[in-house]
Specification:
single chain, mainly alpha, TIM Barrel, two-stranded antiparallel sheet
Length: about 110
């Protein structure tokens, strides 16, 4: 399952519930997400029933510099660890976000 393709995290959780009810094993994959989206995918992939191999890669496979920390790296076993911090377990690095932004829209107060 690619949560971005199925309509986001709420839709992915609904599919997960259906699969759990029917005993269908799941796999989770990504679509070139930044560390924030990658953390969402890892949180989803860590749910019961996601027992098939996943397609969640290390940060540096696609980005020299991500907008979130910590960076996702492959373990010796070729896996990616689920972050253990609060929330998604990653922090947005606002300086990087500003450096890589193409356009910023602000509204007057």
């Amino acid at each position: 399952m690619k949560q971005g393709r199925v309509g986001g995290l709420t839709a992915a959780r609904e599919i997960h519930a259906l699969a759990q009810d029917r005993g269908v094993p799941l796999s989770c994959g990504g679509m070139l997400e930044t560390g924030i989206g990658r953390a969402v995918n890892l949180a989803l992939a860590s749910l019961p029933g996601f027992t098939l191999p996943h397609d969640i890669s290390a940060t540096r496979r696609y980005y020299r510099e991500d907008i979130a920390e910590p960076e996702f790296v492959l373990t010796e076993r070729g896996t990616v660890r689920v972050p253990q911090g609060p929330g998604l377990g990653v922090e947005l690095v606002s300086e990087r976000l500003v450096r890589w932004e193409v356009f910023a829209w602000t509204t007057p107060l």
